[in-house]
């Protein structure tokens, strides 16, 4: 056996400050402000900046936070919309050496209080719009030293009091724009903290590192083929997985961030037209809202817009609608634990010449790993052996690489469970197609097992979406004495259209095997998160309670 003595490449070739620097996305904004100082960076209503100014504001924020006593590994929490202040926090907070905690703006006071306490927040930056919830959360806290800073966005004219010691602009005024960022000593240092939805108890805190954020910014530019100076519309909340790392993507891209405080079809189309938006991201419901907007709103938009869909597989109707308006939509896939969209489904040569039915089939796949994710595979959850590339053998999607979280904050057991066997376990069930692309079948908890047969809720939903009167549908398992469980479909109808339970059942018979047809049809509003994801756990609770009274 050969001795493991040092080789010629192990001697005198050590790391040093000249050849090794910890990776951080803070370097992206520094470079862009140096190379393209006068290139537009952020626009929001009547306010706009160039990259030189945005860097100065981010440095001011970092400097001001340091003066408040914020330092390495301190948590700065924010409850903000997609505004310039939120964008600046993605650089100013880590630039102070701290960790950015973006909080979902639709959470209740008790959950906000839990997050602030669990994250041990030192500073809270909050938009005036959320004063009612935040003020209640502050009353529940046991952190008297928490410093609260208010954001008073000129684009917001609604109610909401100020809760803090000063507003955001006053805070910036105390900072020094020439003071450099505090760079991480190790690229494994935490850069941000995001909380999962907490559908089964308290949410878990997902910790990202500087290395993943840096590489993700470059990887998305390559994986999505974004040209320099792209124009990105903020339809995806920046609080959701740090906007799938697109704040850092756009700094590396030297592009323009078009802020959007609230999702509305007219506001979206106005910004696409005015700023010639080239890219945006969102859940299927956002793309549906855009594609089904009145033709009058789309007037004057003649350029191609690239869209990335995530959060849930887009139904066929959405894919077809996007194709008809000329938008270039691809599917993305990931989880909070993988920085958002860590897989994409790039289109291969010849795609544009295919029939619509084939395009829809291909576009609905979750795809392959992005350039940053080392590997993503469909594995047998028990043996961790790869499933055959046959489009039939179902396994669990598992990932590993630089685009996977550090772990769950203050939850070592959950972290160990998530990384068992050297893979991150997604909990999503999928098949691998012959060309290696992954196709999600369902969440493991959303598979309906009826009489021993597995039923994909996604398959049933896609069939129901084909009904012309259906706007939104969500299928969950309902208890059944005979079969164990059967599908139950919650449906929102399109405005001005009607359908009965019998209409939906009759439609399903033309598209599904008999055992897959829902035994219960419920016409009602479907609960969704602020990112457009359907909250199926609430629907499962509802059918469970309904069943208990039958």
Q: What order do the helices and strands come in, and which of them pair?
A:
Elements (H helix, E strand, L loop, with lengths): L25 H10 L4 E5 L2 E4 H17 L7 E5 L4 H12 L3 E4 L6 H10 L2 E7 L3 H10 L6 E5 L14 E2 H6 L16 E6 L9 E5 H14 L7 E3 L7 H4 L1 H8 L2 E3 L6 H11 L3 E4 L1 H8 L14 E4 L6 H9 L3 E8 L4 E5 L11 H8 L4 E2 L5 E5 L15 E6 L6 E2 L3 H7 L5 E9 L5 E6 L4 E3 L2 E3 L1 H9 L4 E11 L3 E10 L7 H9 L10 E4 L12 H13 L2
Parallel strand pairs: 1-11, 3-4, 3-5, 4-8, 5-6, 6-7, 10-11, 10-12, 12-13, 13-14, 25-26
Antiparallel strand pairs: 1-2, 8-9, 9-19, 14-15, 15-16, 17-18, 18-20, 20-21, 22-23, 24-25
Please give a handful of descriptors for the protein shown.
Rossmann fold, alpha/beta, EC 6.2.1.44, ligase, nine-stranded mixed sheet, GMP Synthetase, Chain A, domain 3, 550 residues, 3 domains, AMP-bd_C_sf, eight-stranded mixed sheet, ligase activity
């Amino acid at each position: 056996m050969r001795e493991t003595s040092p080789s010629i490449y192990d001697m005198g070739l050590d790391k040093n400050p000249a050849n090794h620097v910890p990776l951080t996305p803070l370097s992206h904004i520094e470079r862009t402000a140096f190379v393209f100082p006068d290139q537009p960076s952020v626009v929001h209503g009547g306010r706009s900046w160039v990259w030189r100014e945005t860097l100065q504001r981010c440095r001011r924020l970092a400097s001001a936070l340091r003066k408040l006593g914020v330092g390495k590994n301190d948590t700065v929490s924010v409850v903000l919309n997609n505004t310039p202040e939120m964008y600046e926090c993605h650089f100013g907070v880590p630039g102070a050496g701290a960790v950015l905690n973006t909080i979902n703006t639709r959470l209740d006071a008790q959950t906000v209080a839990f997050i602030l306490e669990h994250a041990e927040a030192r500073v809270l930056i909050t938009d005036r719009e959320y004063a009612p919830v935040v003020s209640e959360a502050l009353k529940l806290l046991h952190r008297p030293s928490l410093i609260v800073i208010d954001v008073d966005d000129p684009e917001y004219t609604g109610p909401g009091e100020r809760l803090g010691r000063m507003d955001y602009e006053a805070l910036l005024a105390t900072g020094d724009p020439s003071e450099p960022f505090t760079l991480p000593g190790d690229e494994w240092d935490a850069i941000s903290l995001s909380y999962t939805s907490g559908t089964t108890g308290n949410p878990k805190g997902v910790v990202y590192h500087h290395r993943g954020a840096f590489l993700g910014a470059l990887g998305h530019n390559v994986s999505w083929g974004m040209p320099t100076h792209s124009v990105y519309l903020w339809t995806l909340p920046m609080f959701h997985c740090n906007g799938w790392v697109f704040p850092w993507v756009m700094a590396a891209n030297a592009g323009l961030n078009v802020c959007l405080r609230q999702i509305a079809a007219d506001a979206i189309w106005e910004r696409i037209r005015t700023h010639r938006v080239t890219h945006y991201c969102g859940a299927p419901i956002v793309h549906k809202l855009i594609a089904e907007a009145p033709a009058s709103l789309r007037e004057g938009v003649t350029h191609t817009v690239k869209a990335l869909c995530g959060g849930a597989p887009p139904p066929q109707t959405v894919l077809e609608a996007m194709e008809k308006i000329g938008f270039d939509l691809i599917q993305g896939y990931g989880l909070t634990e993988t920085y958002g969209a860590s897989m994409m489904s790039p289109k291969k040569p010849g795609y544009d010449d295919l029939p619509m039915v084939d395009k829809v089939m291909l576009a609905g796949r979750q795809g392959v790993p992005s350039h940053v994710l080392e590997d993503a595979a469909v594995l047998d959850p028990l043996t961790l052996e790869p499933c055959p590339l046959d489009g039939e053998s179902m396994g669990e999607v598992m990932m590993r690489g630089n685009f996977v979280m550090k772990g769950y904050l203050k939850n070592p057991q959950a972290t160990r469970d998530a990384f068992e066997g050297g893979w991150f376990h997604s909990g999503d069930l999928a098949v691998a197609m012959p060309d290696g692309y992954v196709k999600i079948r369902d969440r493991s908890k959303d598979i309906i097992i009826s009489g021993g047969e597995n039923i994909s809720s996604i398959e049933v939903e896609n069939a129901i979406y084909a009904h012309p009167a259906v706007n939104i549908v969500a299928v969950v398992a309902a208890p059944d004495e005979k079969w164990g469980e059967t599908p139950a479909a919650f449906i929102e109808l399109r405005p001005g259209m009607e359908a009965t339970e019998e209409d939906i059942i009759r439609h399903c018979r033309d598209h599904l095997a008999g055992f897959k047809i829902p035994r219960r049809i419920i016409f009602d509003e479907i609960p969704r998160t602020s990112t457009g994801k359907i909250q199926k756990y609430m629907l499962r609770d509802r059918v469970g309670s309904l069943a208990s009274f039958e």
